[in-house]
Amino acid sequence: KQELFAELADSLKQYLRSEMERFTSLETVVAKELMNDSTGHALNSLLQQYNCTRAVVITKLNVYFEQTGVEVTKNDDRSKSREASYDICSDVQYIYYKNETIAGVFDKLKCYFFTKRAVASGILAAGPDIVGKSKYAFFAIRQNAAIVADEIIYKLKKEEAQ
Questions:
Q1: Which of 22, 24, 65, 110 minimizes the number of CB atoms within 10 Å of its CB?
Q2: Containing H/E element for 54?
Q3: DSSP 35
Q4: What is the dihedral of CA 105, 94, 142, 68, to 10 degrees?
Q5: Average pLDDT of the chain to the nearest whole number
Q6: Averaged over 63-77, what is the pLDDT?
Q7: Which has more pLDDT, 46 or 66?
Q8: Please, what is the angle between helix 2-23 and helix 134-161, to 10°?
């Protein structure tokens, strides 16, 4: 699972870069370095290293399946059938920095219907495995990146207009 999430983080950065390049003339750079300190020294160092004034830092990334309901149906033999519904959710926090100052925080939780499956009990129902359904996790992350890129680009254009 850790390997999948490392790949998702790398892909998320690339998706965000692609979206930003489609709609802005700003040069975008994807830093491979991790921001492990909370002092700001790492951010300052990266801004200097890449000679830039703006940065988007991904501070949280999660992709998971969430049970959204259980539908109970009575069968002809008076037994009950239960069918659980699941969404795939991507939960990402992006912090937008301008000149080492936080200029925006974007918390994006985006969920999409994924599947329904028969279950013995709604309470004990196990959802899909995120590792086994990893191609859908990448789709969810790409959608999340597209949404936040629109918001960041809007913010950039407002800054340029000022």
A1: 22
A2: strand 54-74
A3: -
A4: -70
A5: 88
A6: 94
A7: 66
A8: 40
In the structure, what pLDDT confidence band is assigned to residue 36 with cuts at 50, 70 and 90?
A: low
Query: Is 93 in contact with 105 (CB distance < 8 Å)?
Result: yes
Q: What is the pLDDT of residues 129-146, one digit of tens each?
A: 999 999 999 999 999 999
Tokens of 54: 């703006």
Sign of CA dihedral 61, 112, 155, 11: positive
Phi/psi of residue 132, nearest 5 degrees? -70, -25
Determine the Cα–Cα distance for residues 135 and 76; give it in Å rounded to an integer. Answer: 38
Residue type, 61: L
Q: How many CB atoms lie within 10 A of CB 34?
A: 10
Residue 98 exposure: Cα atoms within 13 Å on the Cβ side: 8
H or E element: which one contains 96?
strand 80-98
Spatial strand order of the sheet with 80-98 comes to 54-74, 80-98, 101-119
Confirm if 54 and 102 have CB atoms less than 8 A apart.
Answer: no
Q: How far is residue 41's CA from residue 49's CA, in Å, rounded to a whole number?
A: 12
Q: Are 12 and 145 in contact (CB under 8 A)?
A: yes
**Can you give the pLDDT at residue 32?**
66
